[in-house]
Design brief:
By secondary structure, the chain is of the alpha/beta class. It has two domains: 7-36 and 578-789, no CATH class; 70-390, no CATH class. It has helices spanning 47-50, 62-72, 81-118, 122-126, 150-157, 159-178, 211-241, 248-274, 288-310, 326-352, 364-392, 408-448, 457-471, 476-501, 505-508, 514-547, 549-562, 578-594, 608-618, 622-625, 637-644, 646-649, 651-660, 730-745, and strands at 7-12, 17-21, 40-44, 601-606, 628-633, 663-669, 698-702, 777-780, 785-789. Strands 1, 2, 3, 4, 5, 6, 7, 8 and 9 form a nine-stranded mixed β-sheet that branches. Helix 3 (81-118) packs antiparallel against helix 6 (159-178), helix 5 (150-157) runs antiparallel to helix 9 (288-310) and helix 7 packs parallel to helix 9. It starts with 6 loop residues before the first strand and ends in a 7-residue tail after the last strand. 52% of the residues are buried.
Length: 796
């Protein structure tokens, strides 16, 4: 970022820090030596997303991350607070169902497949020495061991899903202390600008401080996990106790436990539904009763269920599958209903507050939520199918082998995977044809863009193909919508198939024509392997990312977008790095300009760095923003964020940001698959706006490649840069110099009003502290770093 191998850290820690070149380390102490050029700083935040191997574990949290994104993809809503709150509630309930689904899958593996079915079968347990102590004596006629009773086996196996819940709680707590507990830049909201009305949401002082909500949701989801395990144990024990000859005392205890479970579930729903985010001011209040009492009480209920299940019940034998198979069907129906409700709310909000280019006309939240449910089904079904196949050896679970197998609904869901993949393959072919047709259409236009060149058909096709491929990004919303809608329909077919037949797809077609039966058998077998393969590939990639830094950086790109937003729906999602990075940048800019109103700042950002830059500038006082110019390049602010998150990056919000800055320039290319124009002008520029020469934001499309063929200046072929290396284009240097010149000419601003912070005095060799003048540049790089610099006599 700084173009120099000798860099030093000037502030920050090993996780995120501001760096300078070694020769600029103490530039404030020698302003005359740095008067010609602005002093550059680079803010590096890559360790927040791909720092160490532990980040690889976040891949398992992918469904939770996508569910959290569904909260932020809602359409814009002016004045419809009730509908917005209902939307947030539905997303939080869907996120809660995902937690229950994942813990229920762990219960299915540990309690049903291992402890109930395999350990209860002499043949299955006999082939696995690690289960021998649980197996009944069978035909040997000897006495059963202490652990051979089904209730005690289940109590022991409950350690696994309880440990999964505890691991999720620990990961959430550990990342919260490192990310979301960072104090934001605190400032007073002017009385003439109410905090919750009429202002861009990202400018609110409490937007990047979700401490209270994450604590509440973490407590509720942890309690839900423990209660799910307790419910699985209680259901198995009470089914036996209520049979003829069962113990009356144990049956009464079972009723009491069920009452406690219902009360706990009610408390969880109350905590999740009670309130959402508070953004008008930093919310430091902690709900101690909910945060501390709810997980502890649910853990006590789980321990009571363990004792109740493990009580001596002579004559209890395991057979078939555990009760509760219908839990997965109920969760699938519930998630489908919540997705449909989100879609209806999204359509209503979009119809009342239309924002140009909104993705999917308001259905983005529903589509993203459906993908989250599909990923949750992939993980839960994949691990269940693989474990069942592994335990049953050469047999097929549920088809004459030693095991009954996983719940029928999971087999039906696995059977729709081949159909869905075939549909996705057809979509990919359609997009490939689109790229081919666009390439042919654009070839002549590419040649016309280089009027002094010698035409070369191959070169023109290569450039046109890059442009055509980059344009596919604009079709992504419909791809997501099509896959989500297909998944919803096929998921409904799986639920109906389970309810109507109660059998797996192959058995349900007995008596059908041979072609139908053969197709059902094929998709069932293929789907079982594919869903297991998907889970294995996820684990394999996690392991590779844990050991390989380059693979971890690739995973970090996924987190750049997915973990930019605060955890407002699911507390077990990967942490929001922006709740650390945005306050870092805002504090750095505010405190640097606060004591010296004559100082100026250019903050430049590439790709995801441009999003961070905009979010940090939004947090500043209006007077401070007038001391800042913004340079973005390869920016997804409008192309991706403006379309998918219109309530936060819509044209009106971008226009408000443009009007509050001294100047803003944006560079983009047609070959860039991520960046694009910002287009804030379409929403109108608020008053007072930027100077007349800064009314326009976008400059582009820039030529890419810079030279069509070999020239005297470029004797070797120039590469197609696409999304990278914008600094190689002369336009970058021109715009940067222009911003610095405009800042230099601007009159000093008044004091920003930001609370002054204590600052230690720095002494020069002569014993005096020089007064710094204006000038700094800070850059925010593409998803990995940020940077800033400016004009004048001295650094910043």
């Amino acid at each position: 970022m700084l173009g120099d191998p000798r860099t030093v850290r000037v502030t920050g820690d090993s996780t995120a820090a501001v760096h300078r070149r070694a020769e600029d380390k103490d530039a404030e102490l020698h302003p005359r030596d740095h008067a010609a050029e602005p002093v550059q700083e680079a803010y590096c935040w890559s360790n927040l997303t791909s720092g160490n191997g532990a980040r690889a574990l976040w891949l398992i949290l992918l469904p939770f991350m996508v569910a959290n994104l569904a909260h932020w993809t809602r359409p814009a809503a002016d004045g419809h607070r009730t509908t917005v709150r209902l939307h947030g509630l539905l997303v939080r309930l869907l996120a809660l169902s995902l937690t229950v689904l994942m813990v229920a899958a762990a219960c299915e593996v540990a309690l049903d497949l291992v402890a109930w079915q395999c350990a209860g079968s002499t043949a299955c347990a006999g082939d696995r020495g690690w289960l021998a102590f649980m197996a009944p004596s069978g035909d040997a006629g000897g006495p059963d061991g202490w652990w051979s009773q089904p209730g005690r086996r289940l109590a022991l196996a409950a350690v696994l899903p309880a440990a999964v819940t505890g691991l999720l709680w620990w990961l959430s707590h550990r990342t919260w202390s490192a990310y979301e507990s960072q104090q934001p830049l605190r400032r007073t909201v002017p009385e003439d600008h109410p905090a919750a009305d009429g202002r861009p949401p990202l400018s609110l002082p409490g937007f990047w401080y979700g401490r209270r909500l994450v604590l509440r949701l973490r407590a509720a989801h942890t309690a839900a996990g423990f209660l799910t395990v307790a419910a699985a144990l209680t259901a198995a024990a009470t089914r036996h106790d209520r049979k003829p000859g069962g113990s009356t005392a144990l049956d009464v205890c079972g009723w009491l436990l069920e009452g406690l479970l219902l009360a706990g579930a009610g408390c969880v729903l109350y905590v999740v539904s009670r309130r959402g985010r508070k953004e008008s001011e930093p919310d430091d209040h902690v709900d101690h009763l909910a945060v501390r009492a709810l997980p502890g009480a649910s853990l006590v209920v789980l321990l009571l269920a363990v004792v109740h299940s493990g009580w001596n019940r002579p004559g209890w034998r395991s057979g078939g599958s555990l009760p509760g198979d219908e839990t997965f069907g109920v969760l699938a129906v519930l998630q489908g209903a919540l997705v449909v409700a989100l879609g209806l709310l999204g359509l209503r909000l979009h119809r009342r507050t239309r924002v140009p280019r909104t993705a999917l006309a308001g259905l983005a939240s529903a589509a993203v939520a459906m993908l989250a449910c599909a990923l949750g089904g992939l993980l839960s079904g994949g691990v269940s199918q693989r474990v069942a196949d592994w335990l049953d050896g050469p047999g097929t679970p549920g088809e004459g082998g030693g095991l009954t197998g996983p719940p029928t609904i999971l087999t039906w869901q696995a059977s729709i995977i081949p159909v869905l993949l075939l549909f996705v393959a057809l979509l990919a072919c359609w997009f490939a044809v689109r790229v081919w047709r666009d390439t042919r259409r654009l070839t002549d236009e590419v040649t016309a863009g280089y009027p002094d060149c010698v035409p070369d058909a191959t070169r023109s096709r290569t450039i046109a193909s890059a442009v055509a491929r980059a344009g596919i990004t604009d079709e992504a919303p419909w791809l997501v919508a099509t896959v989500a809608a297909t998944t919803l329909v096929l998921g409904g077919v799986a639920v109906l198939g389970t309810l109507w037949t109660g059998q797996v797809p192959g058995e349900a077609t007995n008596g059908a024509p041979a072609v139908v039966a053969g197709f059902a058998d094929t998709v069932q077998a293929l789907g079982s392997w594919l869903i297991g393969l998907g889970f294995v590939l996820l684990l394999t990639w996690s392991r590779r990312a844990y050991k390989d830094a380059s693979a971890r950086r690739t995973v970090g790109i996924l987190w750049d977008v997915g973990t930019f937003w605060p955890r407002s729906a699911h507390p077990f999602a990967p942490p929001c790095y922006a709740e650390r990075a945005v306050p870092d940048l805002a504090w750095r800019m505010a405190l640097w300009t606060d004591r010296h109103p004559e100082r100026r700042l250019v903050i430049s950002g590439h790709s995801q760095g441009s999003v961070l830059s905009a979010a940090a500038v939004w947090q500043l006082d209006p007077a401070t923003r007038r001391q800042i110019a913004l340079l973005t390049y390869g920016s997804p602010l409008e192309r991706l964020y403006g379309r998918w998150f219109p309530a936060y990056f819509g044209p009106r919000q971008l226009a408000a940001l443009h009007g509050g800055l001294e100047c803003w320039r944006n560079l983009w290319r047609l070959t860039d698959p991520i960046g694009g124009p910002v287009r804030p002008e379409k929403a109108g520029t608020p008053e007072p706006g930027p100077p007349e020469e800064c009314r326009g934001v976008d400059r582009g499309p820039l030529l890419d490649p810079l030279a069509y063929g070999r020239t005297r200046e470029q004797p070797l072929p120039e590469p197609i840069l696409g999304h990278g290396d914008y600094q190689a284009d002369p336009a970058f240097a021109e715009e940067r110099a222009g911003l610095l010149a405009r800042l230099r000419k601007r009159s000093p601003a008044r004091h920003s009003g930001i609370p002054r912070q204590p600052e230690p005095e720095r002494q020069t060799a002569a014993g005096t502290r020089p007064e710094p003048g204006p000038g700094a540049e800070q850059r925010t790089g593409g998803g990995r770093s940020a940077h800033a610099a400016g004009p004048g006599r001295s650094p910043g």
